[in-house]
Amino acid sequence: MDASTQSTELTGSFTAAAWDRIAPIMAEIEALPLLTRLSDGTLPPEIFRHYILQDALYLKHYARCLAIVAAKAPDNAQVLRFLGSAQKAITVEQGLHAGFLTQFGITAADLTSAEPSPTCFAYTNFLLATAYHRSYAVALSAILPCFWIYWHVGEAIKNQPVVEGNAFQAWINTYGDPQFAAGAREVIALTDIAARAASPAERTEMTDAFVRASQYEWMFWDSAWRLETWPV
């Protein structure tokens, strides 16, 4: 089951409505040159190197967001379910990073000295602030796009013809992997459970957080394509 099929099966749910809301953003994401050239293997190595370094920095903060969100869950069942899905995603991504950091000659010293780009800095601070200061339901909605959009993109690229010798095939395999999909489905399901218990005002906040994080997902890939650095 791909991410588009999943959204269809969720018809009438909070997450289905949220996914429909970001349709214009998803159209822009699917057209990003970084993703189209990653898919066909023509992405310049320096751009991918920039992206994977920023993604490693992002994941360090994202993991902390997931821990905060889990701590806010209303019962032990949801705590354990969320931690399980989060662990799946983090384990998969850390394995991916380890391979690519070696493949593209990124050392431990490079990681230690790397500075988050303006977009990476803004996105991770948005997630951390939302996780700390908003409700469990709103925080879930903020962290969900990273799971769902990567699943969607990974499935879409995976279903295209394989390009022989594509240096980025491991990235495609990771986000099209059933283990990553399972983690995404769990977080989608938990978000719908939280939405059913939320007030109308809180559901509006949930939608706003979901849309903002989806905008940041586009910005993150676009900033890597532009090799974004601090302007001054």
The assigned structural class equals mainly alpha
Quick one: CATH superfamily? Heme oxygenase-like
Mind summarizing the main beta sheet?
none
Task: Please name the CATH topology.
Answer: Heme Oxygenase, Chain A
Average of pLDDT: 90
Counting DSSP H or I runs of 4 or more residues, the number of helices is 12
- The CATH architecture category equals Up-down Bundle
Total tally of structural domains: 1
Q: What top-tier CATH class fits best?
A: Mainly Alpha
Secondary structure elements and pairings:
Blueprint: H1 3-9, H2 14-21, H3 23-30, H4 33-39, H5 45-72, H6 76-103, H7 108-113, H8 118-133, H9 136-158, H10 169-175, H11 178-197, H12 200-225
Describe what this molecule looks like in 3D.
This protein has helices spanning 3-9, 14-21, 23-30, 33-39, 45-72, 76-103, 108-113, 118-133, 136-158, 169-175, 178-197, 200-225. It is mainly α and 232 residues long. The chain has a single domain, classed as Heme oxygenase-like (Heme Oxygenase, Chain A). Helix 8 packs antiparallel against helix 12. The longest helix is centred in the first third of the chain and has 28 residues, at 45-72. The model has no long low-confidence stretch (mean pLDDT 90). Catalyzes an amino-pyrimidine hydrolysis reaction at the C5' of the pyrimidine moiety of thiamine compounds, a reaction that is part of a thiamine salvage pathway. It holds the Pfam family TENA_THI-4. It catalyses: thiamine + H2O = 5-(2-hydroxyethyl)-4-methylthiazole + 4-amino-5-hydroxymethyl-2-methylpyrimidine + H(+); 4-amino-5-aminomethyl-2-methylpyrimidine + H2O = 4-amino-5-hydroxymethyl-2-methylpyrimidine + NH4(+).
